[in-house]
Amino acid sequence: MKKKTTRLTALILSVLMLIGTLSGCAGKKTPGEQSKEDGKISISFYAWDRSMFKQFTPWLEEKFPEIEFTFIQSYNTMEYYKDLMARGEEMPDIITCRRFSLNDAASLSTYLMDLSNTEVAGTFYTSYLNVNKEPGGAIRWLPMCAEVDCTMANKDLFDQYNIPLPTNYAEFVAAIEAFEAVGIKGYQTDWYYDYSCLETMQGCAIPELMSLEGTQWRRSYESESEGNPVGLDTVVWPKVFEKYEQFLKDVHFEPGDEELQFSKVTEPYRNGQTAMIRNTAALADNITLEDGTNSVILPYFGETSEDNWLLTYPMCQLAVSKKVEKDEAKWKAIQEVLMAIFSEEGQKQIAAGTSVLSYNKEVNIASSPSLRYVQDCIESNHLYMRLASTEIFAISQDVGHRMMTGEYDTKAAYEAFNSRLMNYVDPEAEEVLFTQEKGYSNDFGVHGSAAASSMMNTLRAAYDDQIAIGYSPVASSSIYAGTYTMQQAKWILTARNAIYRGEYTGEEVRRFMEWMVNVKEDGSNPIRHRNLMPVTSGLEYTVTETERGKFRLESVTVGGQPLDDNGTYTMLLVGADNFMENESFCNCPMPEDLKSKRQAYLASDFSSQECMQEALEKTKQFLEPTEYVTILPSK
Amino acid sequence: MKKRLQILLLILVLASGVGWAGSAYFSFVSQTIFDESTSHLVEIFRQANQTLYNLVSVNWDRMSMWTPYLDVQPSEQEIVAYVNRARQKSGFTDFFFISRNGDYITLDGHKGYLDLQEQLTKLILDKQPVVVNSVVPDQPEIMVFAIPSNQNSFRGFTYEAIAITFNNSDLVEALQISAFGGQASTYAVLPDGRVVLDNSSESMQDVRNVFALLDKAKGLTDEKLAALKEDFRLGNSGEMVFEVDGKRYYLVYESANFQNWMVLGIVPTDVVNASMNQLQYMTTIVMIGITTALALGIFFIIIQQTKQKLKLKDNQLLARDELFSKLSTNVDDVFVMVDAKELHVEYVSPNVEKLVGISEQRISQSIYEIECLIKQDDTIHILDQLSSILPGEQREWDREYVHQKTGEVMWFRVVVFCTDIQGEKKYILDLSDRTMDKKINQKLEEAVHIAEHANLAKTTFLNNMSHDIRTPMNAIIGFTNIAMKQDLKPETRICLEKIGESSEHLLTLINDVLDISRIESGNIQFAPIPVDITEVSDTVVSIMHGFLTNRNITFQTNLAEPEHRYVLADAVRIREVLVNILGNAVKFTDDGGRITFTADYRTGEDDRHMVVRYVIADTGVGMTEDFLEHIFDEFSQEENGARTHYKGTGLGMAITKRYVDLLGGTISVTSKKGEGSTFVVELPVEFTDKSNIKEHNFDVGNANLTGVKILLAEDNDLNAEIAMVQLEELGIRITRVCDGTEVVKTFLENPPGTFDMIFMDIMMPTMNGYQATEAIRSNPERPDAREIPIVAMTANAFAEDVQASLDAGMNGHIAKPIVIEDVVKSIAINLNI
Questions:
Q1: Do B355 and B418 have their domain in common?
Q2: Quick check: A121 and A115 in contact, CB under 8 A?
Q3: Which of A92, B332, B363, B600 could pair covalently with B433 via S-S, beta carbons 3.0-4.6 A apart?
Q4: Distance between first and last Cα of chain B
Q5: pTM of the predicted model, to two decimals?
Q6: Could you report the per-residue pLDDT of B616-672, keeping only the tens digit for each?
Q7: B112–A207: do the CB atoms touch at under 8 Å?
Q8: How many domains does chain A contain in total?
Q9: Do the Cβ atoms of B195 and A122 come within 8 Å?
Q10: Measured between CB atoms, does A223 come within 8 Å of chain B?
C-alpha cells in the first residue's frame, strides 16, 4: 500500500513538474504543436536502438515528407514503456523493443492497438504472427525481420590453421581444442551480459527446448497469467542445465570470464586471438566488411549436423499506441508507414545490409555470405526463436554466472532458476535511490532538450570536469519528479556509451564541436535529426539550421564566455564512434589527431551508465538543465 | 397566416408521403434485388467452399488409407513408389514423416523442422488429424495436412505422424468461381481477417486482411463491422453489401469448417445485379418523373395562390397607404418615423410644411430640423431623450413651437412611440397641433377666474350684508328688550311688542335669505361630528315645547331607541331641519289639532351605517297638490292669504330641502288640503364610539355672575350699550374699549386678574378682533394672556366666522344680535361657574 501511495504521489508530482517545465519554456512548441502549424501529421517513433538511425529513420523521413517524425532512442525492453506509463506519460505513437515475450507484453495491452485486422498483419506468414497472438486473438506486436545470433567464426583463422569448420558439437569442441593447442582462444563471449548468458544457455539445448515437451512448456509459460507464474518443467529444463554445464567446460570457461564485456571479446577476435565468439550475423557481415576478416556464422551444434539449430529473434517488435485509434488521419498515415516498414524495401533499410530473415510474405532478402555455412539449418527450418522475457534475461545472467563461478551445479542451478522464476523480483527496480524534485521535458526546442541537458549536467558532475559533451543521444525520455530506482534512472539515459576524460585546448574543443555539428564537404551529416544534436554541459553553442536536419556551427562559449582557443579545458566525452564514423551510418570520421588523443582518454570498462551511477551517488538528483544550444533559422 | 401554415404543412405531408412511398419502394426493390442476388451468389460460392472442404477431407481420407500400408513396414522403395503414386492422384507438393518433436524427413531423406505450432500436441498426443498453415524458409506458404500414425521408422527416422503439404497457391484453385465473368474474388481467411488463400479478381488485388479492406468501406458502421467480426469469430455465415472507392460489392461468408477458417466471396454488385439493376433504374426513373410532375403541379398551384394573395395584399396596402396619406395630410398631426440607430428619417407626413413651416424634404434629410421649431432655447431637446425610450413605451412632451413661415407661436403635444419592427427599433414622433385647444383653455381659464372673482364678491357682499344688517338689528332688538323691561304704558308696550315681532321676523328673513344664498354659493359645508342621535330628537322635542306655549295643540312623540345611538352627524343641521318642519306644523295647525313626531331607525348600506327616519305629521291646513310640487322652491307660499296670516319668508322648506340634500338624505311630503301634512326625512349616519362624544352638560340657570369682570371691545356704541346694560343687570362689571388697539393696550396695562374674560368684536377700526386676540395671546410677558378666555361677539354669524374666531385663538363665538342666555352660557362655561 505504501509503495502504491509513493508511486501515486510520484506520478502526481511528475505531472505537475512536467507541466511546470513545459510552461517554463515559453515560446517552445512540442513536435505535435509544430506539426499542426505546418499542417503535417506528427508521429512520435521510439526506436529501441541507435542502429535504427543508421538507414531506416532517414529513409522513413524521405519516404514520408508530409509526416513530421520525432525519433527518440528508447530502450530494448518493455519495462521501459511500462515505466513511462506508470509515470503518466502518453504512449508514443509507434514503439519498438527488442526483448519480447507475450507475458511481458500483457500489461501494456491496454495502451496498444490490436493490429490483427490490419492490412499489414496480413503481410505476415501466419505461423510467425501466431506466436504474438494473445489468447483473445489480438495481435499488438509485429515482429521485424529475424536476426541470427549464434557463433561467429573467423574463417580465415580456421583456414590458416587448417582446422575444419565444425559441423556438430563434437567437432566444435575439437576445434576449440585445436585452436587452444596453437595458443588461440577457441571460443569466447561477453559473459558479462544477460543476453550472452541467456542465448548460450538456450542455444546449447535447443533440441530439448524444441521437443514436444519443450514447446508445450513454452506455450504454457508465455501465456501465464498474473498471479499464476509458470516455473521450469521437470523434463526439459534439467537437461538444459546439464548441457550448459558441459558447454561451459567444453568452451574452456575460465574464472573471471564472467566479467568480460563486448570490446574485451570482440577486440581479440578482430585481432585473430580468438577463433569463435557468440555474436550476430549482422556483426559478422560488418567485421568482414570493415576488417576484411572473413567471419561466418556457425549454428548451435547438436550431436549430429541434423540437430544443429540457429538461434534467432526478431530484430525488434513494433506496436502502435491505442490513442491513435481516435485520430483517423494519423491512423491512416501510420498504416501507410507500417506497410512501408514491413515491405521488402523497409526491411532492407532496417537490416542495413546485414543478414536477416523476414517474417513477411512477398519479402525476399537475399542471404548474406556470413550465413553460407548454416544454409542447411535455414532450409531445414532449424530456426529457434529465443525465449526473451525480462525475467528470463535477468535470471539467466544470475544463474549462469553462478554456474560459471562454480557456485551452482546443475541441480542447484535448476532449483535457483525455478525459484527465481516463480518469485521474480528485479532488485534494480525495487530499491529507491533518490527522489527527483523537478521534472524536465525531453521535447526538443530551439534550446535543445531540458531532460538531455539535465542528464549531461549530471554526468559532468561525476568528476566536475569543465565541459561535457554527449555526441550520442543521452535522454530517452523526460525526467519526472518522483522516486527513482537505479533501473528507472538507466531508462532515462539512452543506452550505454563510451566515456572519455582528459584535457583539451580550446581550439581542439572547437574542432570537436565542428566535427559533431557541421555537414561535411562530401555531404555527410553527423546529426540528421534535430534531436540527435550534441548535448553539452558547461559549454554552449549556436547553430544555424541550413536545411531540415542540417546544421552549421556558429559560435561556442564556455560558461557564457567566448571559448579561449589557447586555454585548456577538462572535458568529459560521451559517445559512440560507431555511429558517427561508420560509412553506413553518418560517415563522419573524427579528425585523426583528435581521435588518437581521445582514444588515450578512454575510460576502460566504464560506460555512461556507470558514470551516471557515480554522479547520482553525489548529486542524488538529475541536475537543473541549461540552455546549451541555440538553433537559428536559416536566413 | 394560419392558412398559409396549413398549406405549407399539407405540402410537407404530401412531400413526405411521396418521399416515403418512393423510399419504401426503393428499399423494397433494393432488398428484393439484394435477396435474389445474394441467394444466387451464396449458391455459387457455397459450391466453391464445398470444393475446398472436399479437398481437405479427401486428403485426410486418403492419408487414413496410407497408414495401414505403412504399418506393415514395406521397404523404403515401396513406400516411395506408393507415395509418388498417391502424389500423382492428389497433387500434393510434399510428403513428410513427422517425429514426436515436429521434425520431419521427406521421401528423399531431407530432414528439417515443420512448425505445426500448438497443433503438434493435438496430432501427437491427441492423435487428431490437423491442418496447419506453416512456412519453411525460402518457400511459399504451405498448407500441411497431417494425421497421426503408429510409431514407425523410415530411413532410421522414427515418426509418429505423416503429412502432405500443398502450396497455398495450389489450394486456391478450389476456390475458383467461373461465374461473374472472372470478377468474383474468393478468399480463405483467419477469424481476424488475415487472408490465407487468395483467389482475388483483378479489382481486388492486394487484399491482405479483409477487415482492413472493410475498414475503408463507406457507410459501414463500427457496429456492423463489429458484428461481422463476431460472425467470423463464431464461424457464422452471412452476407452484406459494402462500398469501397465508389464501387459497391456483395460480400458472402461462411465457415470453411476446418481450422477456424472463413471462406468468403466478394463480387461487384453491378456484376451480380446486371439485369435487376436495369429494372431498378427504369423504375426509379419513372418514380422520379411522377414525383417531379407532382411537385411541379403543387409548385404551380402554390405560385398561383401566392400571386393572388400578393395582389390582394398589394391592394390592401395601396388602400391603406391612400387612407393614411389622406389622414396624415388633413389632421393636425405630423408623423415622423426614424430608425433608432442612426435617427435616419424613414417617413414624414406630407402635412409637415403646412403645420410647422418646414418642408418635407428638409425633415427627410435630417430629423434635427425639428429642433429649430423650439421657441425657447433652454427647452430640453426631445431627440436627446429618445434613447431612453424602450420598445413598447411612449413619452409625451408639450412644446411651444414657432411656425417657420408665419412666425406664429403654436402649441404642440409631441408623443414619441418606440416600436420594434421585425427586429429593428424605430421611433414614431407624433407632433400634434394643440394651438386651438390651448387658446380655448386660456379663455375658459379666464372665465373661471371671472366667475371665481364674482363668487368671492358675492360672498363678501353677503358677509357684509349679514354684518351690516345684524348690527342695527342688534340695537333694535336689544333696545326693544331693554325697553320692554321698563314700566310701560299698555300702548307703548303693544308698540314695542310689535317692534319686537317685526324685528324677529326681519331677522328670520335675513337669516333665511343669507342661508339660501350661502347654500347656493357652496359656502355651507356638511360637518358631521360624533353625537348621541337621540339627543337630537330630545332637543327638538324641548324646542317644540317652547313653540307650543300658549297653543292648544296635542304634541305626540314616538321616539324609538336605536341599537347604536352614537353616530357621526351634523346635529345642528338636523335640528334645523326638524325645527323648520315642526315649526311649520305648529304654524299651520290650529288649536285643537295634533302633531306627531316620530323618530325610528333602520339598517344602512352596511354594518357601519344606519338610516334615521323622522316623521312629522300634523292635522293642520294641508296643501294642495299643485303647491306640493313647489313646496321646496324658494319663496313658495300657498296663496289665499296664508302669507299674510302665517308670516313666512317662503324660504324655510327650500332651506330644509337643501340641508337634507347636503346631509345625503331624502325628504318627502304627503298632504291633503284641510286634513294635514306628513313629512318624512331619512338621513344616513355612520356609527361611532361613545368615547368620541363631548359632554356639554351645564346648567346656566343658577349661574351667579356677580363680580365677573369683563373687558368688552365694541366699536359700535349702541351695541356696546345693549351688551353692557344686559350684562350689568346680571352683576357683571364691564370695561368697554372701542377698537382692537385699545383692547390690547387695556389688557396689558392692567395687572393680571383685572379681567376675567374678554368679549371681542371682530370688525373694529385700527385693529380687528382677530389681530387683537393674536396680539394678546402672543405677548410673552403676560402668562395670563394665553389663559384669559376671549369670546368673539360679532355680527359675523356664519359657521366659517365661528371657525375663524377659534383659529385666531378665541375660546368661543357669540353672534349678534346677542341672545343674553347665550352670553350667560358662554361666560359660565369659560369661567367654570
A1: yes
A2: yes
A3: B332
A4: 93
A5: 0.58
A6: 999 988 888 888 888 888 766 665 444 445 556 677 888 889 889 888 899 999 999
A7: no
A8: 3
A9: yes
A10: no
